[in-house]
């Protein structure tokens, strides 16, 4: 089978966030998550049917908190409190898990291996070494700055496994 995996475009990412959050979202080219930022990031691991890592999605704590609060229709202060305490509160984490699960729709393409959400790693949890390597790898990746209207912004990095 030929490799038909394709990174989603920034427009597709923006549309997904806007549709889920029900508010304006702005995306622009961004810097990749740094190794230090990965420690406090929320990371989704996507696998194929053989449980092989297909892609990783990292969200800076500020983006995860803001998107989680917006999805739960919580005030922006809930996200700010979470960011100040450098942890993703359980109610926000639950919403971010759903966001990551729906993000899978951007990775599944006709003729490509079926991809599913395998695991979400939250700030303070240990990120498996292989997932960390994929997230920080150069190559097939998309790095964006995502801003959720009336909440805030943060980095999003999506990296396909080699």
Tell me what the structure shows.
By secondary structure, the protein is an alpha+beta fold. The chain has one domain: 3-Layer(aba) Sandwich (Chemotaxis protein chec), CATH 3.40.1550. Helices cover 36% and strands 25% of the residues. It has 6 helices and 6 strands, in the order H-E-H-E-E-H-H-H-E-H-E-E. The chain has helices at 10-21, 35-38, 61-71, 76-84, 90-103, 129-136; strands at residues 25-29, 42-47, 53-59, 116-121, 141-148, 152-160. A 6-stranded antiparallel sheet has the order 1-5-6-3-2-4, with helices on both faces. Helix 3 (61-71) packs across helix 5 (90-103). The two termini are 15 Å apart. The mean pLDDT is 94.
Task: Produce a short descriptive summary.
About 35% of the residues lie in helices and about 25% in strands. The chain contains 6 helices and 6 strands; from the N terminus they run αβαββαααβαββ.
Shape assignment: globular
Q: What is the class in the CATH system?
A: Alpha Beta
- Helix share, percent: 25-40%
The N- to C-terminal Cα distance equals: 15 Å
CATH topology: Chemotaxis protein chec
Count of alpha and pi helical runs:
6
Order of strands, main sheet, comes to 1-5-6-3-2-4
Structural class: alpha+beta
Tell me the CATH architecture: 3-Layer(aba) Sandwich
**Overall number of strands:** 6
Low-confidence stretches: none
Spell out the helices and strands N to C. HEHEEHHHEHEE
């Amino acid at each position: 089978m030929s490799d038909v995996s394709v990174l989603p475009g920034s427009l597709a990412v923006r549309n997904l966030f806007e549709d889920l959050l029900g508010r304006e979202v702005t995306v622009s080219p961004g810097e990749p998550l740094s190794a230090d930022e990965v420690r406090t990031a929320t990371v989704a691991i996507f696998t194929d049917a053989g449980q092989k890592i297909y892609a990783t999605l990292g969200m800076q704590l500020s983006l995860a908190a803001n998107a989680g609060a917006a999805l739960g229709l919580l005030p922006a202060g809930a996200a700010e409190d979470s960011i100040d305490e450098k942890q993703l509160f359980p109610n926000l984490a639950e919403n971010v898990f759903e966001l990551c699960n729906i993000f899978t729709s951007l990775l599944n393409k006709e003729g490509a291996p079926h991809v599913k959400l395998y695991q979400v790693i939250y700030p303070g949890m240990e990120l498996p070494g292989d997932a960390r390597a994929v997230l920080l790898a150069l190559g097939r990746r998309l790095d964006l700055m995502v801003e959720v209207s009336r909440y805030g912004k943060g980095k999003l990095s999506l990296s396909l496994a080699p």
